[in-house]
User: Which sequence fits this backbone?
């Protein structure tokens, strides 16, 4: 009834926009919390909407400058989306929004948002000053109407500068002046009795409200806090992502190398009278993709039904390209089976590690004490084996590095495995044992 | 309504200060956790490097009493020491047993968060030992 009778300047719009933003923000926050708890960073966007709601309400209600307010909201949303986009590079919005809105580094986008916000604040400031000047003019006229009643104690309030409703209160001042004491039933009298102002003035203007400067200081402080929070969040999230990624690489890289070391720890020079240790230098797609075959006494096979593990096991490693979703990647394969026939062949290769960048093995020659690229020395075993494994960079990390123009080296894991000479039969003796129809392995390791 | 005074700027500043303190505390906590994780990465790398270096020393590639740095791992250093282990009768001894100990010193604070260069540079170390047999030259 009050509002119908005395419509304030922009109440509907402020309530509508503020309410809508509040509702959207709340719904979005609830949506994120309930349906996507794994994406807590989306709460930043919801928080921005919730922050924008009271701002919209304030600015619109005070009639500061709708354009400035809209620009400020856009700047906030832009900044919020920049942060979100940075955290979530392949979000759904990035595909929809124009490149100009989504491109650029986080810093440039945040700076752009800051410039926009500053522009909007400047515009708001100018409008507010103009309005205040207008009001001052109104004030100059208003007291003339009010002075005749100055003696009445109830008439103190109108002396205060009316904000945001100069013409408005003036109109009511005029009406209430005469009727305030009469207690008449007329509309203006009803409101004039207490404050001699309209409903809007009573509801809002008696409360001093924030001045623009206060609002700006508050917003600046809020922005500062937000910037700090964003900085902290970004650095922490970035670091934890990096650590997580590194741990994932390390797990795969060292995992594979440890398995190879276990296989190599019981290596034998001969198997069934044939040379069993052979490493070849190979390349796939320009990357090292070496192969290695050997016989080992390590128990690297699961026991069979009788609980027996073959005494000697032939093991092989190779790298081959595999078609992974349309792109060629290298995969490290391993074979392991009970020694049978030629130790260099046979057995099924099983995928050990996918997305391998390169796999190279070097052999320490006991004669020259140099690392050789391949090993075809026959009965002689290398002193040590150095395995170097490079993993393919994570897709996201690679794209990020590419955008930043940084050349990232693939994660590289290296391991030197000593070939314990005590396990190997004397080098000087070639394999003598005739293949007496069965397992005739060289003498077992002599005390390691 | 008129009694509602609102916040003064000073109060807001204090409130912000409190909030910022809380946030900084939070950051310190999270940062500490991440630093711990990243130094665990370094520890793992150091262990593998130590093991590899020990194998190289045992294979005779590196001096049993030497030291050096690791190419791909800035800040990682190794140092090998040899200790003779007397075995059996002094006269009949034909073999020398050397205990080779490789010590790897590695940085534990990688500055994972913020990446500030002047971060506190703490190092840690670990060591592994192996046995190197040598045939004693006959007298």
Assistant:
């Amino acid at each position: 009834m009050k509002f119908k009778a005395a419509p304030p300047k922009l109440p509907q719009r402020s309530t509508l926009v503020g309410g809508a933003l509040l509702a959207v923000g709340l719904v979005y926050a609830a949506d994120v919390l309930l349906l996507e708890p794994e994406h807590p960073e989306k709460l930043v966007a919801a928080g921005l909407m919730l922050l924008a709601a009271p701002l919209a309400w304030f600015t619109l209600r005070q009639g500061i400058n709708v354009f400035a307010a809209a620009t400020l909201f856009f700047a906030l949303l832009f900044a919020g989306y920049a942060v979100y986009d940075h955290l979530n590079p392949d979000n759904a919005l990035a595909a929809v929004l124009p490149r100009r809105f989504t491109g650029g580094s986080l810093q440039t986008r945040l700076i752009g948002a800051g410039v926009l916000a500053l522009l909007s604040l400047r515009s708001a400031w100018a409008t507010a000053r103009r309005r205040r000047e207008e009001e001052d003019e109104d004030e100059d006229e208003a007291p003339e109407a009010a002075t005749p009643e100055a003696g009445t104690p109830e008439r103190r309030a109108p002396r205060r500068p009316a904000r945001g409703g100069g013409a408005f209160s003036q109109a009511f001042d005029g009406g209430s002046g005469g009727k305030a004491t009469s207690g008449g039933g007329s509309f203006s009298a009803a409101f004039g009795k207490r404050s001699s102002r309209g409903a809007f003035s009573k509801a809002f203007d008696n409360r001093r409200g924030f001045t623009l400067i206060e609002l700006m200081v508050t917003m600046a402080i809020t922005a500062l806090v937000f910037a700090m929070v964003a900085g902290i969040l970004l650095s922490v999230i970035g670091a934890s992502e990096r650590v997580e990624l590194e741990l994932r690489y390390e797990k795969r890289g060292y995992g594979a190398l440890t398995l190879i070391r276990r296989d190599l720890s019981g290596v034998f020079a001969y198997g069934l009278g044939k040379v069993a240790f052979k490493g070849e230098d190979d390349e796939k797609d320009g990357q090292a993709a070496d192969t290695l075959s050997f016989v080992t006494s390590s128990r690297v096979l699961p026991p069979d039904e009788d609980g027996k593990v073959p005494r000697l096991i032939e093991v092989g490693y190779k790298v081959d390209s595999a078609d992974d979703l349309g792109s060629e990647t290298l995969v490290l394969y391993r074979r392991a089976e009970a020694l049978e026939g030629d130790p260099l062949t046979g057995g099924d290769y099983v995928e050990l590690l996918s997305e391998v960048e390169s796999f190279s093995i070097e052999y320490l020659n006991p004669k020259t004490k140099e690392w050789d690229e391949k090993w075809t020395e026959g009965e002689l075993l290398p002193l040590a084996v150095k395995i170097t494994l490079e993993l393919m960079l994570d897709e996201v990390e690679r794209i990020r590095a590419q955008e930043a123009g940084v050349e990232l080296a693939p994660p590289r894991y290296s391991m030197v495995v000593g070939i314990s000479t005590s396990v190997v039969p004397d080098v000087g003796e070639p394999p003598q044992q005739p293949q007496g129809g069965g397992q005739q392995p060289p003498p077992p390791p002599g005390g390691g | 309504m008129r009694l509602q005074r609102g916040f003064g700027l000073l109060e807001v500043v204090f409130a912000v200060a409190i909030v910022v303190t809380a946030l900084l505390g939070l950051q310190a906590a999270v940062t500490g956790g991440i630093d711990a994780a990243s130094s665990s990465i370094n520890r793992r790398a150091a262990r593998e490097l130590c093991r590899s270096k020990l194998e190289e020393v045992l294979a005779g590639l590196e001096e049993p009493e030497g030291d050096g740095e690791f190419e791909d791992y800035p800040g990682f250093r190794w140092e090998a020491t040899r200790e003779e282990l007397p075995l059996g009768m002094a006269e009949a001894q034909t073999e020398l047993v050397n205990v080779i100990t490789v010590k790897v010193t590695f940085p534990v604070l990688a500055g994972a968060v913020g990446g500030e260069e002047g971060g506190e540079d703490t190092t840690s170390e670990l060591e592994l030992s192996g046995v190197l047999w040598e045939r004693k030259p006959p007298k």
